[in-house]
Write a structure and sequence with these properties.
heterodimer, A: mainly alpha, Rna Polymerase Sigma Factor, Chain: A, 2 domains, about 70% helix, disordered N terminus, B: mainly alpha, elongated
Chain lengths: ~200, ~170
């Protein structure tokens, strides 16, 4: 299943607020079936965010699972001030940032495979063949360079780029997840893009 | 400015490539079941360890320790500070202070020949009461008849035989 398609699918099939609150209510009472439904709804987005932050599938797997476990254990403290999705996103993001601080200077990339259809993405192929001096550069090399450039950003800057430019979230949603104001999100995004631009200059000429 | 925006557009298109990275096939089929398994395993694990209970009751302690994990330099500084406190503690503990030059009060007490209990013959206290006062904690009737001071080898100085006269009404 293509992640991009799956994200679109989950977004279009996003549950009605009542339904989600009902699932949360049941899960708070210890109903694991209800919690299973909640996990299935958000697992792909949570995993993808953590994966893009860590550039490591195994770490993303562990952190995503731990985030859902921690959320279940902390469900009683969930007051409903925000949506369950924002709340669990915050848990996952905080967990990931703490993890990244601990593993600083011990970066090890374990990248996922590239979707087969990427080879037929005309935009992407044009970007590589037209703008790259090294025309032989394959998608795998581009993937590696892209992840390396992301890992050079600080965690808050990387998070903003991942949530906005990769996950497609709005400034407001990001501000809510990161618990900061929209101006901070915008300035971080601008600075992070500038830095990424310098790192990937060869691919952006 | 426009050129900059165009460059950002190119960057955004490049970043969209990240969406093409996909986990192994079927990865999400088992994800939620693994989460639930771990939740059940956690619930079955009783009781909660002392460390977990401590961290849940005092989350600041966990944050404090996480600072050390994130910044090893802090760990070194904290350990150094602890060592200094320990060294100063030992140095100051070994310094002679003024109280050592004064005679110990306990010595004076030990030399005092005043009996712990003295019962005057004219006292209205009965002999039984006097024995109880000599050894208030002793429940053994046989040993309670012995003066307490004999335990310390100072039988003569701490307890004296007394004769009682029961006042006749």
């Amino acid at each position: 299943m293509i992640m991009a398609e799956s994200i679109e699918r989950t977004e279009t099939e996003s549950p009605a607020p009542e339904e989600e609150s009902e699932l949360v209510r049941r899960a708070r009472k210890g109903d694991l079936q209800a919690y299973d439904d909640l996990v299935k709804r958000y697992q792909e987005r949570i995993y993808a965010t953590i994966y893009h932050m860590t550039s490591n599938h195994e770490d993303a797997n562990d952190l995503a699972q731990e985030s859902f476990i921690k959320a279940f254990q902390a469900l009683k403290s969930f007051k409903g001030g925000s949506t369950f999705y924002t709340w669990i996103y915050r848990i996952a993001v905080n967990k990931t940032i703490n993890f990244l601080k601990q593993r600083k200077n011990r970066t090890h990339m374990s990248l996922n495979d590239i979707d087969f259809n990427a080879e037929h993405d005309t935009d992407l192929i044009a970007l590589i063949s037209d703008n790259t001096p090294r025309r032989a550069a394959g998608l795998t090399e581009l993937q590696k360079k892209l992840n390396e450039a992301l890992l050079k950003l600080s965690e808050p800057h990387r998070l903003v780029v991942v949530l906005h430019d990769v996950q497609g979230q709005s400034h407001e949603e990001i501000a809510e997840v990161m618990n900061c104001n929209i101006g901070t999100v915008r300035s971080r995004l601008f600075y992070a893009r500038q830095q990424m631009q310098a790192e990937l200059a060869d691919y952006l000429k | 400015m426009n050129e900059n925006e165009n460059n950002f557009e190119s960057l955004k298109r490049l970043l969209a490539f990240k969406k093409r990275e996909i986990p192994p096939p079927g990865y999400f089929n088992n994800f939620s079941s693994q989460v639930l398994l771990r939740i059940r395993a956690g619930e079955a694990r009783e009781p909660v360890t002392a460390a977990e209970r401590l961290f849940s009751e005092a989350p600041w302690l966990l944050k404090f320790l996480q600072v050390f994990e994130a910044k090893p330099a802090y760990t070194g500084s904290f350990a150094l500070a602890l060592c200094l406190v320990l060294v100063f503690g030992i140095v100051f503990a070994e310094r002679p202070d003024y109280s050592a030059s004064q005679p110990l009060v306990t010595t004076q007490v030990a030399d005092n020949s005043t009996p712990l209990v003295s019962v005057s013959p004219a006292s209205p206290i009965s002999p039984a009461v006097g024995q109880i006062m000599l050894a208030p904690d002793n429940t053994n009737p046989a040993s309670s008849l012995q003066p307490v001071a004999s335990l310390f080898g100072q039988q003569d100085s701490l307890a004296q035989q007394a004769s009682f006269t029961i006042p006749s009404n």
